């Protein structure tokens, strides 16, 4: 009886998305303008989800990974990328399973999601109660807030290498206003063309860093002394933990899919592609410049200015705008729900209501302009829980009872050893990330972050700029 019950639920699931999918087929006779809008604007396929995951995963972190290699050393840098890439894909899978479970239960109760975007804290609320909802809401929103801050800092850091007539703080003011225009993008459905372009941009930048570094060759007297100490080692490791913890928007991306049950392997496939970008670029830049990266957290700062480098800078600027929107959109949704305008159909009203979300992001980017070190701090204190610990624990508690496991929509994969292997894997993830990521990583990142404050001060006008440029 239990298996029949599950099969019935799955067959009748995803009512809203299937309607949307069918609607796309009926629109084939619409006007050329409408069809063009559908092609570039209204995405929800597995390919859209893959582009969203792959393009959102690296962003500005691509420019700080060589810095992490200088802290970790070549071997540890490569191993941590592979290890955290696999771990990040695993917890993204857990989040997708919990989303499917939550949505199935709600649709069994005839809940309609046509005018509502499901978010991670709502999944936790529906499956585990209000205390888990509050914990998830705090960590997820705080992480996304600082994730948006990091993108804004990266914009100012990058544009400075093309135009240093203005200091980085002034550029932060300018790009804060530019990034505020993301309030007009309604949801992740509307990132189709942006996600596609974002992946092209990161691919170009990655291969530019790789090829330019190899052609440049090693600088005179290059040294590769990493790892030089525990603080630097765990700071670099936590930056990589942050790199592959970009799925704080997994639920929103799934909800934007016409068939969200197909998400299962998307994040893993995206991670594999991202590794083909990050491993060569970080290795090549570290090989060429070695310990110089310890004082240059942005890899673009060390390469000579050429047309190719300026192109990489411009493409990364556009991509950081896109990633800012990715990180901010879930915050927009939370704020809309809080003030009661989430179901409003007027795009202008929703955009106006979203603007207050951008203000604290703008302000924090001006206070803490520490490109590179802030990644590790956010990774250790926020990503550790948001992306790794909470999903693993939530999955274990949700399916703790025999009846929950028997009636689970998504059964434990045999490849990991069924439910027993799944629990062992989750326990390992929680223990490792709590001890190494949050514990040692948090200690090292905070020591490094305080060092940046003591060296450059809060509201630094031009972080890591050459002295004659300040």
From TrEMBL:
Residues 43-410 form the Amino acid transporter transmembrane domain. The keyword Plastid does not apply. It comes from the Eukaryota. It holds the Pfam family Aa_trans. GO terms for cellular component: membrane. One of its GO terms (biological process) is amino acid transport. InterPro entries: AA_transpt_TM. Its main location: membrane. The chain crosses the membrane at residues 78-100, 137-159, 171-189, 196-219, 231-253, 265-289, 312-335, 355-372, 378-400, 421-444. It is found in: Membrane. The keyword NAD does not apply. Keywords: Amino-acid transport, Membrane, Transmembrane, Transmembrane helix, Transport. This is Auxin transporter-like protein 3. It comes from Sesamum alatum.
């Amino acid at each position: 009886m239990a298996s029949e019950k599950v099969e019935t639920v799955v067959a009748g699931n995803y009512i809203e998305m299937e309607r949307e999918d069918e609607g796309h087929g009926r629109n084939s006779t619409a006007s050329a303008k409408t069809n063009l809008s559908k092609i570039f604007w209204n995405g929800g396929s597995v390919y859209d989800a893959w582009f969203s995951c792959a393009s959102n995963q690296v962003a500005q972190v691509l420019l700080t990974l060589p810095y992490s290699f200088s802290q970790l050393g070549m071997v540890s840098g490569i191993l941590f990328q592979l290890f955290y890439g696999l771990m990040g894909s695993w917890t993204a899978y857990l989040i997708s399973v919990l989303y499917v479970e939550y949505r199935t239960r709600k649709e069994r109760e005839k809940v309609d999601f046509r005018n509502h975007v499901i978010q991670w804290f709502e999944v936790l609320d529906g499956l585990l109660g209000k205390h888990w909802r509050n914990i998830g809401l705090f960590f997820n929103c705080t992480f996304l807030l600082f994730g948006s801050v990091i993108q804004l800092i990266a914009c100012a850091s990058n544009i400075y290498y093309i135009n240093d007539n203005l200091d980085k703080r002034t550029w932060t003011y300018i790009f804060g206003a530019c990034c505020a225009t993301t309030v007009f993008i309604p949801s992740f459905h509307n990132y189709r063309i942006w996600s596609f372009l974002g992946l092209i941009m990161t691919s170009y930048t990655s291969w530019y860093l790789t090829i330019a570094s190899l052609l440049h060759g090693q600088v005179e007297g290059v040294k590769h002394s990493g790892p030089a100490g525990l603080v630097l080692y765990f700071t670099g490791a936590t930056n990589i933990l942050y790199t592959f913890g970009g799925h704080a928007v997994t639920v929103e991306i799934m909800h934007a899919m016409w068939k969200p049950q197909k998400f299962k392997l998307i994040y893993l496939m995206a991670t594999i592609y991202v590794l083909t970008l990050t491993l060569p670029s970080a290795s090549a830049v570290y090989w060429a410049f070695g310990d110089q990266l310890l004082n240059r957290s942005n890899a673009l700062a060390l390469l000579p200015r050429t047309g190719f480098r300026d192109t990489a800078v411009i493409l990364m600027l556009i991509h950081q705008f896109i990633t800012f929107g990715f990180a901010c959109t879930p915050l927009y949704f939370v704020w809309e729900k809080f003030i009661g305008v989430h179901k409003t159909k007027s795009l202008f009203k929703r955009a106006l209501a979203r603007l207050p979300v951008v203000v604290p992001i703008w302000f924090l980017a001006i206070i803490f302009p520490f490109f590179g070190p802030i990644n590790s701090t956010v990774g250790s204190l926020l990503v550790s829980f948001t992306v790794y610990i909470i999903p693993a624990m939530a999955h274990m508690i949700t399916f703790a009872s025999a009846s929950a496991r028997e009636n689970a929509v998504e059964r434990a994969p045999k490849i990991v050893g069924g439910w027993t292997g799944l629990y062992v894997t989750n326990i390992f993830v929680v223990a490792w990330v709590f001890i190494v990521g949050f514990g040692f990583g948090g200690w090292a990142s905070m020591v490094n972050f305080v060092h940046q404050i003591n060296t450059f001060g809060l509201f630094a006008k031009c972080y890591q700029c050459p002295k004659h440029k300040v």
